[in-house]
Amino acid sequence: MTRDILFVPYKATLDLLSVQEAMDVCEEVYRMHARDSVVWSSPPAFKMDVAEGFNNHWHVKAALLKDIPTTGVRLYNYYDDGVRNTVGYLDCTRYVVLSDPKTGEAEAIVDEHWNYAIRSTAAAVVALKWMGPLDRARPLTLGLVGIGTMGVNALRCLLTLYRFKEIRCTSRRLETRKAFAEKWSKELGIPVVPMDTIEEVVRGADIAVGGTTSTDIMTREQWLGPGATFISLARRELDPDGWAKMDKVVIDSWVFNSIQKEFKKMIEAGQFSREQLHGEICDVVAGKVKGREREDERILVHTTGLVSQDVAIAHYVYQKAKAKGLGTWLPAAG
Length: 334
Prior knowledge:
By secondary structure, the chain is of the alpha/beta class. The chain has helices spanning 10-16, 19-34, 113-125, 128-131, 149-158, 174-188, 198-202, 240-243, 254-258, 261-268, 281-285, 307-324; strands spanning 5-8, 38-40, 46-50, 56-65, 70-79, 94-99, 106-111, 140-145, 164-170, 192-194, 207-210, 229-232, 248-251, 279-280, 299-302, 328-330. It folds into two domains: 5-117 and 307-330, 2-Layer Sandwich (ornithine cyclodeaminase, domain 1), CATH 3.30.1780; 128-302, Rossmann fold (3-Layer(aba) Sandwich), CATH 3.40.50. The protein contains twelve helices and 16 strands. α5 links the parallel β8 (140-145) and β9. α2 crosses α12 (307-324), α3 (113-125) packs across α5 and α3 (113-125) crosses α12 (307-324). It is globular and about 60 Å long.
């Protein structure tokens, strides 16, 4: 008998996935990659970008996770005219469709606005368990370049690993960074200081996070002091000339980064190569590649995002929703 399909809406996902749970799932998926138990779609991503008259962008990705097992297709649609980008807006299409890989039967449709937002940072921050500052007890200085969804969620993830004595932040608008500083100073009980420039935020920071929507180069390598860990969550957060000057560079996937325009351009220009890569995060997590070995190492952690983690998180949320009786059952065609 064909099973009905569980729809898990956005509001339900907020109660079904914590920051720590997202980090745990991302870590386990890295272990799956190290075991070579993830199957990618071919091609790894399908895109439809229609600029003239629409500024509309469709992205579709898929993966099969043998260890769960589940198959998931992630699809999202957004508007971007170069000025206004709605990729994180709640009214944009953003779902993961899950099915049983042994039968092909549909299992769930999961809204992934929250899942995606926290996965985008959890997948990078979890790498700091191996690549971040060695002394977890020492209060650190954190720099946030960009305080939108990625900046806020990076902070939430980092607070599960470290204590901070000061947080510096910057953004395009003065009023935005002032409001952010006031809110988080009160919530955390530590100084959160709005800065006018990126350099002021990054210089002297133990950990710095680049999470903007800009296509411009945001942070310069020479601003990063000894022992600094820089988390790059998007496009060109660290200048391409600086990558090879870092002591260690780890990324989530060479294959998936290589299909990104900015990363591909950097490689083709000879600014960085696979030989200069310290390793992929999955190999660090699995112990195949060493993490940080000295406090003074400058380390870059860069992620573009893995659909395998999106699928695994969606499946985790689906299982919890089913167990708690949350979501809406949709009638299957049969």
